[in-house]
Amino acid sequence: MGHRSWMRSQGFTPEVFDGRPVIGIATTWSELAPCNVHLHRVAESVKRGVWQAGGFPLEFPAMALGETLLRPTAMLYRNLLAMEAEELMRANPLDGVVLLSGCDKTTPGLLMAAASVDLPAVMVTGGPMLNGKYQGTDVGSGTAVWRFEEDLVAGRMTQEECAFAEGCMARSNGHCMTMGTASTMASMAEALGMQLPYSATWPAVDARRYETAQRAGQVVVDLVRQDLRPSAIMTRAAFENAIRVNAAIGGSTNAVIHLLAIAGRLGVPLSLDDFDMLARDVPTLVNLQPSGEYLMEDFCYAGGLPAVMRELADHRLLHSDAMTVTGSGIGVNVADAPCWNRDVIQAVAQPFQPAGTGTAVLRGNLAPDGAVIKQSASSPHLLKHRGRALVFESPADYYAVSNDPDLDVDENTVLVVRYCGPRGYPGMPEVSNVALPKKLLLRGVRDMVRICDGRMSGTAYGTVVLHVAPEAAAGGPLALVRTGDWITLDVPARTLTLEVSDEELTVRRAQWQPLAPHASRGWTRLYTEHVLQADAGADLDFLVGASGHEVPRESH
Ligand code: FES
Questions:
Q1: What is the CA radius of gyration of the chain?
Q2: What's the whole-model pTM score?
Q3: Ligand 1 within 6 A of CB of 74
Q4: 35 Cβ below 6 A of ligand 1
Q5: Quick check: 356 and 493 in contact, CB under 8 A?
Q6: Mutation test of ligand 1: which of 28, 37, 67, 139 has the most ligand atoms closer than 8 Å to its C-beta?
Q7: With a 6 A CB cut-off, is 539 part of the ligand 1 pocket?
Q8: What digits encode the pLDDT tens for the residues 264-323?
Q9: What Å distances lie between residue 285 and 299, 312, 348, 403, CA to CA?
Q10: Structure confidence by residue, pLDDT tens digits, 270-285
């Protein structure tokens, strides 16, 4: 009586307590997370579907992580969202959940939570914004920001033009419409089988997104009745599919970290090397910024992710029998998916970029536990490069001198920016693609090799070695590099080498001083004391694994 009575304060009729499935709708809505600001409306569509299927929907808030405003980085809070959502899903009397996400970290955070609770779950991402339009051309959020900023510094654009362009980029609800991290993770959720076909690509304002959300409400009730849980969907086969799809769409390097973290919650064995090995025979099919030309709206009209997965399935590059929330294998879901534009979604036989040009995993004495590089966003002539290091202890240190005309740098220099890893910053921000020194930009140089233990936005481009592990703050060899050292990057050989002898590195290590702790209390302290390195998904060590959904004791 107590439970029902208090719930009836919301005006529910008594029949809703007849034992029908109770469906939680976890929403990461917030006006502080502009990419997710329409999720309230998406939740209304989900509710329609839940009622329609005979369930009882209840919407609840989960921490909203907005990429653009949160400091020091939204990534510092991904695990906090995952922990909060996990406990809410377990502690409330829910039979199933619908996960509403959009901006970069909200999708992996909610998937990590759902994996650890293992209640029947469907994800509905909020969809990309409409294409940005500036001076008659398409502009991609994120990607265009980097370009405009460089154009401003180089004098190719005025301050007024920049201010005008600002309003042209983000002109509807939705997340970034390049193949950045949000679009990538929405695609990963679909490739993993956790959201309905086409969910990743319908624009946020497209009526079919709301139709799909309503369908998701129906589907989650079915999942409860069938007892089909995330652990039966997000299997090793599903992760292999996701890794291959990520290569085919030219997806963000952030997918590496997030997929490793989600797999860790499920006990699915997945390693950094899987990303290189599985992607080597997958060509890039999708011609989207930042690696290509088009944007998510074009991808949608060209046939969306199902058209890509069908192409992969037809070439035996997909585990077709991997289960999905539809109750069918993913191969069934995409079997008849049409492609309407082969310029946007290219064929395996004539790909946008050949196999082996996706995210590569590098190893060597500078990254004993691995580092990654997005080849498709790099300059081909820099993929084999030897240069002298110019070392900075933080992005701020670099930017303090990056405009100096006397900076001792040329296009062969290797910029090393360190202490940007999970512990070092903290939170592993997207700062690795530091803008080029003004001196080089004015000479027309558009790319140079950069090495960092942080991340790079999925909307960014450049020859940037990322996620170096162990990070400098954990005492990795990156902390021992000195300006003037020679570094060799050899992406075809998958190596990253600091040309300094072991003996010299031992001497330097003895002199190295760790950073002072970032915080003496609160979340940041908990995070820095427990965060794992990038090659393990940067989850917290005590959050790896699952606790299930049992809540054994009644409190009243
Ligand atoms: Fe939210 Fe790009 S800022 S998706």
A1: 23
A2: 0.96
A3: no
A4: yes
A5: no
A6: 67
A7: no
A8: 999 999 999 999 999 999 999 999 998 889 999 999 999 999 999 999 999 999 999 999
A9: 11, 10, 7, 38
A10: 999 999 999 999 999 9
